């Protein structure tokens, strides 16, 4: 029972982190097209500074997956 409780706690924590990250992503994705452009990133100095590093595939946009590495 203790292991089940611990596992449930971990799952709930991960779901909460994902929900928070999704809300943060939506804040930066101003036009709602599912990616954060370099111009949208300029609204936050920390994100703008990390943009090129976060843009792993070099397409000039941050996907939700790429944004998940943002440490703002």
Automatic annotation (TrEMBL):
Residue stretches making up the EF-hand domain: 42-72
Any one Pfam family here would be EF-hand_5
Keyword list (alphabetical) reads: Signal
Q: Which Gene3D superfamilies match?
A: EF-hand
- Signal peptide location in the record? 1-21
Q: Among its keywords, does the record have Signal?
A: yes
Q: What name does UniProt use for this protein?
A: EF-hand domain-containing protein
Lineage start: Bacteria, Pseudomonadati, Pseudomonadota, Gammaproteobacteria, Alteromonadales
